[in-house]
């Protein structure tokens, strides 16, 4: 019987290495990978002329529903419009956080799932934001609904925490101990994520730097968050999680010292999975100051310095950092730029169309990272953590045919004109890269071609868990 679709003459990035050949799809799944002449007939064939086939990206770090406006309507709109940009960049699965609130966690979880259903253009998972001890007790109930990831905003306290609807006291080690104990006792494949950054010293430094009147805003912002403030929480919360047998997933690692900290903890056998984000790998505070990015580039933790960017890349090469996400929100430029730099809300808008283009250029063309490592950090490792591998995150027999085709020779100028959601500014305006995503397939369907969405409507759906998550 003929396959539905065969992609021929490609460089296919499988988990065990790239192979020259073809990939066959029937329905939504990959049914064959091998030499062109062995793959068999198909109703439709595409000759890739040597282009690279990578697994569709899984961006596990997105915050829908908490940007210019806040709530279920905002989240539904984010899913409906801004996931189009995921397809532009080859991102076929995302995980967004729930709204931040005090309602029961199972309710927040199902509301977020409902927002995505029948609206999202890519497949999705939902991460709960855990804010109260009542919610800690509800973690096992969320696991029964299919929720495995739980975010703890350990880096926030005081007024800043309150502005996000969190408690003033923040997430203490005692609170986190209770959470890990509940997770361990549940016997379920659940993992905690932390935003590591001591909020108290940060508060002092932010006040001082704000009063200093500095105009190199993003460099000053980087100085407000010392490296150790990130590392100290990775150590403290990592030790608690380790003692209770939970894997720990610190999100958006930004500092050189933190990469060393994670390497040390991993060497001691701690089950810790480090995530960094595309912006930290792609720029520095001084580069962003030179471009006048100001509030648009204000993210917490901050975009830092050259030495941090270098160490993050080394962390990826050596396997200390295993996941790259974006920490995207759906802010407008007007929202980010209304008012004073120091008052503006932290976070960067959806720049998911650029993740692969930026990182392919940097990783493959400049830093000697191989294609398999790039595929692991952009897709496979997060899919493993969320328990959806190998259905997602790999080019393998039986996996969903989520694919991105990269033209390694194609030069691309990044900027707002590439976005197809509501995103109205780009941190990368005018940046030239070599290597461009030219086709995206979601479950066997061509959804993006040559920089345009070619699907009639979104058909993303929640991804059910298929196995126990594990770190590494
Ligand atoms: Zn985040």
Q: Which labels suit this protein?
A:
binds zinc ion, six-stranded parallel sheet, 2 domains, 19 strands, Urease, subunit C, domain 1, globular, 36% helix, TIM Barrel, alpha/beta, 472 residues
Layout of secondary structure:
Blueprint: E1 3-14, E2 17-26, E3 29-34, E4 42-47, E5 52-55, E6 57-62, H1 72-82, H2 84-88, E7 91-97, H3 105-116, E8 123-129, H4 133-137, H5 139-145, E9 149-152, H6 158-163, H7 173-186, E10 191-194, H8 199-212, H9 217-223, H10 227-243, E11 249-250, H11 256-267, E12 274-277, H12 278-282, H13 285-290, H14 306-318, E13 321-325, E14 328-329, H15 333-337, E15 348-349, H16 352-366, H17 371-385, E16 403-413, E17 432-442, E18 445-449, E19 452-453
Parallel strand pairs: 1-4, 1-5, 6-7, 7-8, 8-9, 9-10, 10-11, 12-13, 14-15
Antiparallel strand pairs: 1-2, 2-3, 5-16, 16-17, 17-18, 18-19
Helix pairs in contact: 1-3, 3-5, 7-10, 10-11, 11-14
The structure holds zinc ion (ZN).
Residues 61, 63, 251, 327 line the site of zinc ion.
Mean of all residue-level pLDDT scores: 96
The main β sheet shows up as: 9 strands, mixed
Query: CA-to-CA gap between the ends?
Result: 40 Å
Ligand list: zinc ion
| CATH topology (fold) name of the largest domain | TIM Barrel
**Low-pLDDT windows of residues:** none
User: Structural class, from helix and strand content?
Assistant: alpha/beta
Question: Helix segment count?
Answer: 17
Rg, rounded, reads 21 Å
Q: Which CATH-level-2 architecture of the largest domain?
A: Alpha-Beta Barrel
- Estimate the strand proportion: 15-25%
CATH class label of the largest domain: Alpha Beta
């Amino acid at each position: 019987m003929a396959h539905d679709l065969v992609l021929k003459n490609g460089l296919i990035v499988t988990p065990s290495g790239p192979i020259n050949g073809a990939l066959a799809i029937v329905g939504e799944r990959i049914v064959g990978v091998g030499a062109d002449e062995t793959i068999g007939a198909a109703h439709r064939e595409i000759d890739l002329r040597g282009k690279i086939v990578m697994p569709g990206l899984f961006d596990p770090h997105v915050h829908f529903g908490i940007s210019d406006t806040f709530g279920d309507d905002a989240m539904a709109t984010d899913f409906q419009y801004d996931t189009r940009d995921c397809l532009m960049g080859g991102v076929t699965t995302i995980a967004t956080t729930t709204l931040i609130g005090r309602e029961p966690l199972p309710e927040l979880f199902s509301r977020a799932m409902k927002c995505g259903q029948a609206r999202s253009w890519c497949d999705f998972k939902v991460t709960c934001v855990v804010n109260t001890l009542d919610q800690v007790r509800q973690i096992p109930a969320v696991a029964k609904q299919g929720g495995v990831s739980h975010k703890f905003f350990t880096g926030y306290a005081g007024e800043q925490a309150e502005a996000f609807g969190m408690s003033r006291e923040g997430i203490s080690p005692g609170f986190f101990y209770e959470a890990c104990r509940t997770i361990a006792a549940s016997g379920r494949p659940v993992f905690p994520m932390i935003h590591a950054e001591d909020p108290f010293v940060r508060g002092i430094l932010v006040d001082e730097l704000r009063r200093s009147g500095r105009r190199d805003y993003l460099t000053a912002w980087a100085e407000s968050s010392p490296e150790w403030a990130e590392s100290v929480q990775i150590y403290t919360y990592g030790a608690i999680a380790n003692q209770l047998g939970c894997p720990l997933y610190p999100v958006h690692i930004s500092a050189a010292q933190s990469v060393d900290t994670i390497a040390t903890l991993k060497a001691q056998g701690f089950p810790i999975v480090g995530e960094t984000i595309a912006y930290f790998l792609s720029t520095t505070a001084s580069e962003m100051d030179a471009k006048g990015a100001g509030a648009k580039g204000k993210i917490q933790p901050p975009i830092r310095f050259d030495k941090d960017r270098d160490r993050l890349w080394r962390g990826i090469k050596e396997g200390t950092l295993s996941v790259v996400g974006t920490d995207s929100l759906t802010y407008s430029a007007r929202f980010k730029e209304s008012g004073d730099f120091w008052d503006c809300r932290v976070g960067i808008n959806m720049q998911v169309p650029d993740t692969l283009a930026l990182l392919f250029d940097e990783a493959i063309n400049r830093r000697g990272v191989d294609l398999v490592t790039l595929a692991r950090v952009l897709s496979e490792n997060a899919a493993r953590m969320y328990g959806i591998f190998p259905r997602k995150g790999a080019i393998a027999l039986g996996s969903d045919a989520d694919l991105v085709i990269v033209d390694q020779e194609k030069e691309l100028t990044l900027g707002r004109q590439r976005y197809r959601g509501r995103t109205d500014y780009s941190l990368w305006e005018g940046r030239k890269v070599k290597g461009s995503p030219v086709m995206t397939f979601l479950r066997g369907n061509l959804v993006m071609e040559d920089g345009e969405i070619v699907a009639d409507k979104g058909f993303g759906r929640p991804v059910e868990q298929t196995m126990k998550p594990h770190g590494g």
